[in-house]
Amino acid sequence: MVRFDSRSGSKVRIEGTSSVHDWQVEGKLIGGHLEAGPNFPTEPGQVVQPGKVDAKVEAFIPVRSLLSVEKDGRPYKPAMDDRMYEKLKSDKNPKIFFYLSELVLKDVPKTKEAPYLFDAKGDLVVAGATNKVSMPVSILPLGEKKLKISGKVDVKMTDFGMQPVRMSIGPLAITTGDDVKLAFDWMVAQKAPAAAAASK
């Protein structure tokens, strides 16, 4: 198994709805690592066969790295961030985790610039609650032992023991929807062999 560790350049976006307007949250930190077997595409244009792929993933997002934003990306409100951290129980569960259980290659790219398309299954841990999720994932080998892993998944707050937010601002009552969309771009790079790293 070849190990890839998290690198800078990752992005997370979470989107939801409310009775007043849609909301969005963004972050730039994804930690963890990927271990890939010999049938995992790690180089552009690598020939691999569709089917189940040997891979292990342990990834996490620090909850307090997530910030509410306007649609154009400007910061929204610290009060929204505080309410989000409270709902995610960040004091006792400071990270959101994902553990891969199965990765199946569905489609091989026709060019070196296109990604490999997978179906992924695993355990998503949010606010201390664990649920199984399935999602499409694309993996784009960038060369130089680097990968860009992208995916998106729809979840419900209530599946993780979180009730939709209800709050009042003056005469206005606001309720968030239960459905949440999570999308990510995870940048990883191959871990240098210990001997090679020591000789530099």
What do you see in this structure?
With 200 residues, the protein is mainly β. It has a single domain, classed as Lipid/polyisoprenoid-binding, YceI-like (Lipocalin). The chain is 8% helix and 55% strand. The protein has 2 helices and 13 strands. The chain has helices at residues 78-87, 194-199, and strands spanning 2-6, 11-18, 23-27, 31-36, 51-52, 55-62, 67-69, 95-107, 116-126, 129-143, 146-156, 166-169, 172-190. The chain has an 8-stranded antiparallel beta barrel. The radius of gyration is 19 Å and the shape is elongated.
Précis, in short:
The protein has helices spanning 78-87, 194-199; strands at 2-6, 11-18, 23-27, 31-36, 51-52, 55-62, 67-69, 95-107, 116-126, 129-143, 146-156, 166-169, 172-190.
Radius of gyration: 19 Å
Mean pLDDT: 91
Overall strand count: 13
Number of domains: 1
How much strand? over 45%
Count helical runs. 2
Q: State the share of residues found in helices, binned by percent.
A: under 10%
List keywords for this structure.
200 residues; mainly beta; Lipocalin; eight-stranded antiparallel β-barrel
Q: How are the secondary structure elements laid out?
A:
Elements: E1 2-6, E2 11-18, E3 23-27, E4 31-36, E5 51-52, E6 55-62, E7 67-69, H1 78-87, E8 95-107, E9 116-126, E10 129-143, E11 146-156, E12 166-169, E13 172-190, H2 194-199
